[in-house]
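Can't paste images in this forum, so I'm doing it all in text. The chain is below; anyone willing to post the predicted structure tokens underneath?
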Amino acid sequence: PASATGNGTVTVNVTENPVAISRAATVTIAAGTLTHTVTITQAAAAPTLTTDPTSIDAADLAGSYTIAVTSNAEWTAAVDAAATWVSLSPASATGNGTVTVNIAENPATVTRSATITFTAGTLNQTVDVTQDRFAAPPDYAASTQTWRFGEQIWSDLIIIPACDKEDFGNSITEPHCRSYTTDDSETYYYYNWPYVAANGSQLCTGKWRVPTVADFSALIASVDAETLSSAWPLSGYADASGPPETHGVYNVGIAGMYWSSEEDLTDYDEDWAFGLLFLPSFHDKLYTAKVVGHPVRCVR
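Text version of the structure:
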């Protein structure tokens, strides 16, 4: 009981200690002006520690990942000293919590790894981090150069040796790709949209893809026309007075136009598909005839 007269017994009921920290309380017994104290000390519970997930497979681009920590104790988290591309927030706490793992972009062409070690008392839990290598340009890119605009990475023009042909296909039924060699021996490669639609996975390999209209919209929102035209050499329709093989084929000097992977039949008939047009003072997505040759740049 909590009170009585004369001799007696008090039963002290103690609940289970759920945390890995000892705790104490004081029971005070009073009779008139007299008091007597009894100190109760309860041992710490055995520490527990688990993490979810136990491994992280990170993309090569910068990103953030979360680790859920379940523990009844104080814990800390630390990354290999050499893994400066990984940071943690927070790096310590008590009880259950969440750690944000911030990973920087991997600029190398090899994968890299790190280990995050969580410690609670004598317990250790590790989380292995593996980050993918930077994606090499598509197999048929004209060069290894890439461009980053906002969250996107774009490749150079796509060139497929099998498309190096003199006889340009210029119809929906014969959706060949086409090439054009200038007087100074520079060769430019172009594709009819049906060829792009049918061979997208060959044109843009690995993590790269033929851009969608949404990709073009994101590009337009993240970079101005002048910057884009400076980064990507301009190309445009050849003059109709030029050689017959250049009619309807893109040449250098007027405007930039690249295929998307999508067609649109809402306002136009089946002969039209989306592309990206850019000039030094203007850039937008728009429709263009499927039979006209345009270059392709891959995005990821």
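Confidence is low (pLDDT under 50) at residues 167-173, 235-254. The radius of gyration is 33 Å.
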